[in-house]
Amino acid sequence: MNANADFRFGVYCGIGATLGVLLIVLGALLLFWRRHHRRAPALHDGYLEHTQDTATDARTQSQPRRRRPQRALGQREAGPELDIAALRPYKLALHELTTVSQRPLGAGAFGEVWLGRYKTQLVAIKRVKSRSKKHVAGFIDEIKLVASLDHDCIVAFVGASWRRPIDVECVTEYMDQGDLRSYLGRQSSAAFAWDAKLDSIGRVVQGLVYLHSCDPPIIHRDLKSRNVLLDSVKGTKLTDFGVARGCDDDDDVLTSCIGTHQWMAPEIILGTFYNTSADVYSFEDLRNSLGI
């Protein structure tokens, strides 16, 4: 009898433990689903077309369109004021910057990247699609961050351009082989030599070490193959700092579910506090995509 009781007790314990694990997994999946449906897609600037979050699209299409209320004549748009003073030292002469491509090199939910020429140099020109003050103010913050970075493994900042603050553009060096994802799609595994793979991944490491060594440390928060650019001469460099943040930002920012879900660290998906280690998780996914 004691043996049978012990056996039943063991079975019940096993069932209880299994149910507990299932409840934890289901809770995490529910939290992920709610965050995934609630947040808007981030702005990207790789050299490939980026699509919006399908969950966001479905939610938008399922609701009837509402007519936007008309503002009275002369009424200003509500939102943050556009403080562009910090970019004035980097302002490029308008007559020296031209767009040379007929279509964007890449496009995202909120922005586009065009091929341009500054003086005799080919450049990438990033623009926001939306002219809302909220989006432009966030873009100005991104330009300020990019302007502060100086490393051989980070896409080089050339300057900023605008006629009006609402039209501001970010100008960076042009990388002639595009982003890593499209490059891997064009090349066979044999064509992308092992030494070249090691060099590329090594330069990504150097770029991350630089970002994480800044004061305060900078978390990229969207490290993936589309945000790694290649050039036949300049090698591999990191790009797209639209959602990057310093580690001294408030807790609300560093618990936000921001980035691309496929590449996200678990702590970001679960909405818990995270730091530079989140980039290390994304780096491992990037390394695996190269077969290293």
Give a verbal description of the structure.
With 292 residues, the protein is of the alpha+beta class. The chain has 3 domains: 1-38; 80-173, Phosphorylase Kinase, domain 1, CATH 3.30.200.20; 180-289, Transferase(Phosphotransferase), domain 1, CATH 1.10.510.10. The chain contains 7 helices and 10 strands. It has helices at residues 2-38, 54-62, 133-148, 180-186, 194-213, 266-269, 277-289; strands at 97-99, 106-107, 111-118, 121-128, 157-161, 169-173, 218-219, 228-231, 235-238, 245-246. The strands form 3 sheets. Strands 1, 2, 3, 4, 5 and 6 form a 6-stranded antiparallel beta sheet that branches. Strands 7-10 form a two-stranded antiparallel sheet. Strands 8-9 form a two-stranded antiparallel sheet. Helix 5 (194-213) runs antiparallel to helix 7 (277-289). The chain is globular, with a radius of gyration of 23 Å. The termini are far apart. The chain crosses the membrane at residues 12-33. ATP binds at residue 126.
Q: Assign the CATH superfamily of the largest domain.
A: Transferase(Phosphotransferase) domain 1
Rg is: 23 Å
Strands, total number: 10
CATH architecture tag of the largest domain: Orthogonal Bundle
Helicity, as a percent range:
25-40%
Helices and strands, in N-to-C order?
HHEEEEHEEHHEEEEHH
How many domains in all? 3
The N- to C-terminal Cα distance equals 57 Å
- What fraction of residues sit in β-strands? 5-15%
DSSP summary: helix tally: 7
Mean pLDDT: 76
The major pleated sheet works out as: 6 strands, antiparallel
How does the helix and strand content classify structurally?
Answer: alpha+beta
**Shape label:** globular
